[in-house]
């Protein structure tokens, strides 16, 4: 009896699942893993540097940058949750994952995606107050208020995902135990359950509507109101300056929600689309926003750019301080 590969036959009592890389491209997994590894390192470096910069630079101790720190921390969490199993599958062909580890990964992956949406909404609120009510900005968005908003966003993300994840621990799995991704997702696991999964199929749809759809609508409305305020400003320079503070956030919102919409459309209407397209879109969804957010803010925000320069010249050039 060979012990080289885990048994892929249906097994209701199995305590593990099998993750899947890119079916049909197993021979190229080592090559495919190279860009994944570089993106992984870039995400870790970019977001960690952003967090360090916001912590160290007192000029960045403002609500806008506290929310940006929350976004960077969420992106780090999302990448650290998904990428280790992806690289393990692609590099080592280590496909087996315990059920508890799998359900925990699914829980953190979905929770952090909802947290990201909430942080982007909080950032829109920050820009809305800054432009619509600039004189009361610091009295409305106090440090305590920012903490409360951050805590609310965290709780919403992590509590709302508990109801569909808990039943996964109790379902029997007799169809198969082969998952279609290199990390665990609720919608992937639920297909393998041999039980009534009505609640698990309906609840996530409601959740997506109440979180992703509602958040994106509120962000859109807030920007319509921001635009109205900006257009009322008489000076052209002041108008450009006011709108410029929103550009980075608008780019991050577009990067996040365009990938969310793209993935949702492919899942709903892409039955004829090759499986590799589904896989690629899911990796784009989980990797593109965490990769792009630090780049967008570094390129478009003057304070972050000068902060980066200051951080690196201070750390690497002692002679500059002499």
TrEMBL record:
It is a multi-pass membrane protein. InterPro entries: GPCR_Rhodpsn, GPCR_Rhodpsn_7TM, Olfact_rcpt, OR51/52/56-like. One of its GO terms (biological process) is cellular response to lipid. Residues 46-297 form the G-protein coupled receptors family 1 profile domain. It comes from the Eukaryota. The chain crosses the membrane at residues 31-53, 65-87, 107-125, 146-170, 202-226, 247-270, 276-296. GO terms for molecular function: G protein-coupled receptor activity; olfactory receptor activity. Belongs to the G-protein coupled receptor 1 family. Putative odorant or sperm cell receptor. This is Olfactory receptor. The gene is LOC109259995.
């Amino acid at each position: 009896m060979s012990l080289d590969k885990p048994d892929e036959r249906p097994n209701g009592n199995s305590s593990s699942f099998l993750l899947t890389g890119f079916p049909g491209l197993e021979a190229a997994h080592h090559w495919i893993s190279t860009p994944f590894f570089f993106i992984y390192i870039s995400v870790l470096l970019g977001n960690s540097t952003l967090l360090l910069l916001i912590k160290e630079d007192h000029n960045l101790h403002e609500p806008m940058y506290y929310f940006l720190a929350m976004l960077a921390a969420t992106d780090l969490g999302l990448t650290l949750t998904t990428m280790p199993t992806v690289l393990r599958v692609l590099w080592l062909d280590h496909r087996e994952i315990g059920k508890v580890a799998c359900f925990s990964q699914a829980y953190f992956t979905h929770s952090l995606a909802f947290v990201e949406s909430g942080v982007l909404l909080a950032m829109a609120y920050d820009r809305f107050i800054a432009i619509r009510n600039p004189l009361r900005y610091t009295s409305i968005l106090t440090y305590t208020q920012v903490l409360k908003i951050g805590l609310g966003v965290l709780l919403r993300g992590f509590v709302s995902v508990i109801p569909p994840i808990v039943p996964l621990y109790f379902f029997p799995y007799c169809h198969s135990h082969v998952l279609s991704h290199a990390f665990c997702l609720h919608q992937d696991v639920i297909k393998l359950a041999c039980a009534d999964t009505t609640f698990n199929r309906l609840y996530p749809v409601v959740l997506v509507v109440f979180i992703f759809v509602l958040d994106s609508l509120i962000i859109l409305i807030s920007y319509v109101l921001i635009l109205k305020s900006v257009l009322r400003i008489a000076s052209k320079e002041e108008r450009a300056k006011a709108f410029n503070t929103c550009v980075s956030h608008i780019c991050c919102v577009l990067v996040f929600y365009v990938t969310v919409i793209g993935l949702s459309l492919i899942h709903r209407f892409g039955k004829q689309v090759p499986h590799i397209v589904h896989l690629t879109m899911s990796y784009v969804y989980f990797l593109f926003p965490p990769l792009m957010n630090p780049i967008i803010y570094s390129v478009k925000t003057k304070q972050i750019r000068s902060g980066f320069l200051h951080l690196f010249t201070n750390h690497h050039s002692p002679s500059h301080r002499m």
